[in-house]
Design brief:
Elements: E1 2-6, E2 9-12, E3 17-24, E4 31-38, E5 45-50, E6 57-59, E7 67-72, E8 77-82, E9 91-99, H1 109-113, E10 120-121, E11 125-130
Parallel strand pairs: 2-11
Antiparallel strand pairs: 1-3, 3-8, 4-5, 4-9, 5-6, 7-8, 9-10, 9-11
């Protein structure tokens, strides 16, 4: 599956952005999807994830209550609504996916949090929050 992230840009603190991750190549409904972010000189950081059914979502503590992840499998997209943005949210945001449908054992929460769990990555979209 090929992923393409979009929707980033400049925004003032307190503002909102909506990122989208569009998939092509295979039905997106078979994949769990996560969002990660990275700033220069820092390690990639987990932001949020959603199961392939959309029934469960996960968030980093730093974004809980401000970000909302959702998916529309009919449109092969996953979105990340980001509200109350802060300068520390500035980063390149990546969407990523791994095959999840049909797996006999449910994935642990920590599995979704780890970038190593994801096999497919988009190219990233820059989010810049100014104070």
């Amino acid at each position: 599956v090929q992923l393409q992230a979009s929707g980033g840009g400049p925004v003032q603190a307190g503002g909102s952005l909506r990122l989208s991750c569009a998939a092509s190549g295979r039905p997106f409904s078979n994949y769990a999807v996560g969002w990660f972010r990275q700033t220069p000189g820092k390690e990639r950081e987990f932001v949020s994830a959603i199961t392939y059914t959309g029934g469960s979502t996960y968030y980093a503590d730093s974004v809980k209550g401000r970000f909302t992840i959702s998916r529309d499998n009919a449109k092969n997209t996953v979105s990340l609504q980001m509200n109350s943005l802060r300068p520390e949210d500035t980063a390149v945001y990546y969407c990523a996916a791994f095959w999840a449908k049909g797996v006999s054992s449910p994935f642990s929460e920590s599995y979704y949090f780890s970038g190593r769990s994801y096999d497919y990555w988009g190219q990233g979209t820059q989010v810049t929050v100014s104070s």
